[in-house]
Structure formats: C-alpha cells, structure tokens
Amino acid sequence: xxxxxxxxxxxxxxxxxxxxxxxxxxxxxxxxxxxxxxxxxxxxxxxxxxxxxxxxxxxxxxxxxxxxxxxxxxxxxxxxxxxxxxxxxxxxxxxxxxxxxxxxxxxxxxxxxxxxxxxxxxxxxxxxxxxxxxxxxxxxxxxxxxxxxxxxxxxxxxxxxxxxxxxxxxxxxxxxxxxxxxxxxxxxxxxxxxxxxxxxxxxxxxxxxxxxxxxxxxxxxxxxxxxxxxxxxxxxxxxxxxxxxxxxxxxxxxxxxxxxxxxxxxxxxxxxxxxxxxxxxxxxxxxxxxxxxxxxxxxxxxxxxxxxxxxxxxxxxxxxxxxxxxxxxxxxxxxxxxxxxxxxxxxxxxxxxxxxxxxxxxxxxxxxxxxxxxxxxxxxxxxxxxxxxxxxxxxxxxxxxxxxxxxxxxxxxxxxxxxxxxxxxxxxxxxxxxxxxxxxxxxxxxxxxxxx
Length: 452
What we know:
Radius of gyration: 23 Å
Number of strands: 13
Shape: globular
Largest sheet: 7 strands, parallel
Distance between the termini: 63 Å
Strand content: 5-15%
Strand order of the largest sheet: 3-2-1-4-5-6-7
Number of helices: 15
Structural class: alpha/beta
C-alpha cells in the first residue's frame, strides 16, 4: 500500500526486551512514510527478558495492542494477518539470533504471498561487539537500519565482504534522541529561571553487564560515592535500568542496588529509575562506561564523559568513543575536568547535535514507500544464512525458537492459541524467578568458588 493511500499504515513490532520494545516502537513511527496515520500492534517475545508491566510503563511507549507470544505464536499471527488485517511494515526488534529465526519462519509463512510486509531490523544502540556475527544474523530483512554514517559504512563492508547483498543497509539515527538542549549550569547565564536554584547534577548511567565483575562494579560505585562526598553541593545520581529480579537486554548478575547496601553513601547520593530523557532534563554531567545514554546526552549537548578508569577496551565498549573527546577518568572529573566533544566524531555517529535529526529518517521512509508501492509485490525473504551456507550454525539458531531448518515449527513447540491459564501463568513466573535467582545469586557464587 503506497503511503499516499487513505488507509492507516498497519505496523507490527516484535521485541524481546524493554529497551528493544522502546527502539522498535519508536523506530516504527519514525520510518513510516509521510504523514500517514499508524496502527501499531506490539508483540513481546516470551523469554528471560520479557519486560514487566513496570518496565513497559517506564519506557513510556504505547501501542494500539500489546501481547506476549512465543516465536511460533507470532508466526501463526503473521500467517493469519491477511486482507484488511495484513501489516504493511514489520519491525523485528530482537537479538540477532531471534531476527534470523523469524526471517526463516516468516519466509516459510509468506512463501506464496507477494503482498507481505516490509521487514526492518537494526540495533538499539552502539554496535561495539560481534559486528559480523550480528549483522549476518540480521541479513535478509528489507531494511537493516544503521544508526549512523559510520555504522552504515561498516555494515555495507561486512555484507560485501562475504558476498551478501548490502542494498538493505539504510542510514538512520537512534529513534529516541530528543529533548531540550542543555541550557547550562544552575545559575549560569543560559540557565532557565525555573531551574536556577536546583543543584548541579551528576548522573552515572549504569549498564547491566558492563563491567561484569564485582570488583569493577564495586570500584565504580565507590568512585561515584567519593565524588558525592567531595562535592556535597552537588546531587549525584546513579541511574539504573531495572529493579532487582527484572531483566533488560543484558543479564545483570550484580545489581548496584545490592552493592550499595554495603556502602555508606552521603545524603546527596541516590538511586534513580525512570525515563532516561526525564533524568537528562536535570543533568549537568553524564558519566558512563559505554551506555547509549552517552549518545542521548551528546545529542542534547550535555557535558558527557566516557570513563577510562577500567581501561579503554573492546570488552567494555568504550573503545567506540575513541576520538570523541569524551574519554576521561574519575580523578580528572573530581578535579573539575569538563569534556569537549569532537564535532566531526559526533556528526558521524548520527547524533545530529547541531540539527538535521528530523531528516535522519528520510531515506528509510522513501525506501519503505517505494517497497510498498512495488509492482507485483515484494520478493521472498532471502537471508544470507541458509542450510547450504551455514549448515552447522543455522539449525541451532532456529532450534532455540522451536523451528526446524526449513522454518517450520518443531514437534512440541509451544504455540497456544489462547492466553495461558492461571496454573501455567504461576509456573511461568516461578520459572522466570528461578532463572533470575540462578543468574544473580547462584552463578556468582559458583564463579567465586571456581576462582579459589
């Protein structure tokens, strides 16, 4: 359906975590062509990171409908969505393996349909690890969205390097950038009158899995608390992604909430949750290891620091910020250092701090508009990985989602057509709780015992 038609654009988003739901839903609205009205249906893939109602409220992105599904249930829903109920665009907001499984499953479901939806996928934030692996698992979508010029160039190089079609790579930007530009420190010439009396606020944006050791996480917490003690006139906030027992995109074995119980923070230090944009509204200095929050902060021209205390290493992801002008240590921050971001580096990251963000999605909109209006419909999905190109890898990827190598459901795959009963819901919650207990309590103990 061309964007010029009067019917509302029907869009579906399949996501496997709170952050990917946020990215997927916002991306769906950003890339939809023209001023078309959008009907958005959300599907949450059942798994260890399925967002809780609290997490969904905190994300603050709604939909016309939202339901939890297994992979096979989702494929069944896509097979049944025909005629007036068919979708125009599908956004796969999943880990790479999930995207690959859905591409093969959808390829089977839509094998005889030329009017299938346009399929888009991409990344929630900074791509600093498993570049080739993640990209090839996403190959086969009509649009593989790159959040910056730099990423678009890297993505095309990977696809072309293995002989895969790189035409799907489409440059966009992170869909959740926005908010008011930084107005300056409290009491400064550029500060808003309503905020003139607020304290100077330092925010540390924590990450669930970076760093992953107790020693390193304890060190970062101690330095943050030390900064609060050195500057009692400041408000020092530890911004957390989830509460204990919840999971986000990554597993968090050692929540800062547990570590802070053994500390003795001063009154000007506290933990905060909530929407990152709302926290940035009152931030004067954003500090992180490698969180995507750094890009949100830079977009709003808030002073932003990427810490070097634990080294500049690929395992931490802060190597992505080499050349940004944002690298610094806590010692430097304690002494009053303020970073000055490199304008050329910032421009290559799709941050558009100096404007141009509203046009960042034009290429994607035009491509989708063209695909929707393509004579004869769309060709079959064609992932790079097939039983011929990756016979030792692909079957395992698909089996994790209860799919056979040809994309058909495996025997015994969970695919209920109705909501689970009370007993099944209790069992499911208990299983998730047991998994989280194992991740956050049992696994660290076993790891420490192994180090004795």
